[in-house]
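To close the chapter, one final illustration. This time we ask the reader to focus less on the individual chains and more on the assembly as a whole: which components sit near each other, and how the overall shape emerges from the parts.
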Amino acid sequence: MSIITLGIESSCDETACAVIEDGRIVRSSIIASQADLHSQYGGVVPELASRMHVEAIVPCIREAMKQADVDYPQIDAVCVTKGPGLVGALLVGVSAAKALAEVKKIPLVGVNHMAGHIAANYLTDTSWEPPFLCLVVSGGHSEILLVKDYSDMEYICATRDDAAGEAFDKIARVIGLGYPGGPKLDKASQTGDPKAFSFPAPKISDSLDFSFSGIKTAALNTINQVRLKGEEVDVNDFAASYQDAICSILCDRLLQAVKKTKMKKICLAGGVSANSCLRKKITDMAEKYHLQVCLPKMAYCTDNAAMIASAGYYDYVAGIRDGLDMNAYPSLEM
Ligand code: KG4
Ligand code: ZN
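The assembled structure is written out below.
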């Protein structure tokens, strides 16, 4: 008999619900994006995000159940993102999940959003299993994790300042690409010259940690110097060069982590894993060093509930449960 999990995600600006079979097969995945609303403000407005989640959550759950053609007695666990994320946004998903769990008498599993991103790989390659190294890069996170088992992970390194997604979003805004910056910067880069501008590599030598504040400041200084001369940077060239510099840092660190751990399997997770330059560099690296690689399907790179239902499935089969006293945890660690 297969195990069916219902996933609910509302940590930032996407209300999402999905139904997954045995942690790997996506029966439905519904995403109500708020990107158009927040783009008017140049970034996510937390209070607006919470209100939109309240409006979208019930229709999202109903649609996911309908498309998967399941009813509540068939659901083995309700899996919900309990953190990290925006507290008001998280609380909407957590409250909906707790209500369902209580009324329908279904076990409740609170899921770490970042563990969810890692599970996007299980939905992409159904034979992908731990142990592996995962480069996790999103709007709020940049880290390399050694995934020893489905619910057992160890930090290899993390960012000391900004996340990669944050570094993309900030510079995209400054060069006029708007929100959400990462995908727009990626698109502009397609016709730009990655060698047009150069940026300094971070000088951390005592660990594998990332740092993006230096490169971000260097990019801002370059833009300001050009503007002081009454000129403008070529947006496509600047985007391509900046993107290339950040992706090179990410790849370099992942390669060092491979050497340190002797792990031969690598994958990506988080919104920035959708980046075309990063995907190309990681693919080339895997080929050069004979590594097994998994790149999450584009549909599962950015926030979705299928990944939450998958990560929740593995916690559920490991016997992990949450009670109705579960809260939303905005700074939840792995
Ligand atoms: O994982 P995610 O959807 O939300 C968080 O958990 O943060 O990641 C969002 C981040 C944003 O910073 C966004 O700009 C970035 O992922 N992103 C990209 C691309 N698509 C999304 N960054 C670079 N290139 C992309 N194609
Ligand atoms: Zn995310």
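The first strand starts at residue 4 and ends at 9. The radius of gyration is 20 Å. With these observations in hand, you are ready for the problems at the end of the chapter.
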